[in-house]
Design goal:
Elements (H helix, E strand, L loop, with lengths): L1 H11 L11 H9 L6 H9 L2 H11 L13 H8 L1 H20 L1 H20 L5 H9 L3 H9 L1 H14 L3 H9 L3 H11 L4 H8 L11 H16 L16 H6 L3 H18 L8
Length: 280
């Protein structure tokens, strides 16, 4: 099992071979880590890739964020959302090309989770709900990368879900020895993603284990649950995920708060239907 674990980890971490990950991501990451970098510098780097810029701006202007006025430049998006959110959108729009070919249901589920996370964060009174939203958008990133790097393993995982009535999370562990949350940890370290975003991606199935930013892990855990309840897209199985009661203590939410969030999501999910960043 250890050999298989190491072998699969090495294959997944050759993720730089993925053709859809733009070189601009490395440049943006480098600039973000330099405290002397300006918004103009980061915007200029992103804007050099016109196709990528168009996709990022479409995401910024999507129902997920609900800005009253259209955002027409990357620089404006950076000012409104911050470096880390825009970097997350670059990753999400880049892997969208992979999802569009064979994992459209997962893309829709990710959008639904992102929208739910924003609503939950607003209801909990957190600042910058966009940061929670981008964590929701990327929470299943490990599933996409494992499907690309280990396609034969994905077939085995899908078969285990169908034949043994397992959740996708359980099936991944049975077949690979680890699940997509572990892959999210490797990718977060590989790309030097911010710790807040890493906590949401890594601990969305086990929010109690988040040591630094449990609020992000709890919001994504609940957002994932709500996207499943509303049956937005598909995350690989048709089961409703386990809801950890610990999140209510961390988020300081009551049943009445959740009902309000769900009423809003009922309307917002309808607006999201059919949204794709690569189509007008």
């Amino acid at each position: 099992m250890e050999d298989l674990y190491t072998q699969n980890k090495d294959r997944i971490l050759s993720v730089r071979d993925l053709p859809t990950l733009p070189s601009v991501l490395d440049q943006v990451t480098e600039l973000v880590q330099d405290p002397s970098s300006s918004t103009d510098q980061v915007a200029k780097v992103i804007s050099q890739d016109q196709v990528l810029s168009a996709k990022v701006l479409k995401m910024v202007n999507s129902p997920i964020y609900g800005f009253p006025r259209r955002i027409s430049t990357i620089q404006h998006a950076l000012v409104l959302l911050g470096f880390n959110v825009v970097r997350g959108l670059i990753i999400s729009t880049s892997v969208f090309d992979i999802m569009a070919k064979s994992m459209m249901g997962l893309w829709e589920h990710s959008l639904g989770c992102a929208m739910a996370c924003a609503g939950i964060a607003r209801q909990a009174g957190f600042k910058d709900p966009e940061e929670y939203s981008v964590a929701g958008l990327l929470h299943d990133l490990g599933k996409v990368v494992s499907a690309v790097q280990l396609p034969e393993v994905k077939d085995e995982v899908d078969a285990a879900v169908r034949e043994k009535d397992l959740s996708y999370y359980q099936a991944e562990k049975e077949v690979m020895g680890f699940s997509h949350d572990r892959i999210n940890a490797w990718l977060s370290d590989h790309w030097n993603l911010p710790l807040r975003l890493r906590e949401g991606l890594v601990w969305h199935h086990r929010p109690k284990s988040a040591q630094h930013y449990p609020d992000v892990a709890c919001v994504v855990h609940l957002g994932d649950f709500m996207a499943r309840v509303f049956q937005v897209g598909s995350s690989g199985d048709d089961q409703i995920s386990y809801l950890d009661g610990h999140i209510f203590k961390v988020l300081k939410l009551k049943q009445s708060n959740l009902e309000k969030v769900m009423d809003e999501l009922d309307r917002e999910f309808a607006e999201l239907s059919g949204f794709r960043p690569d189509q007008d």
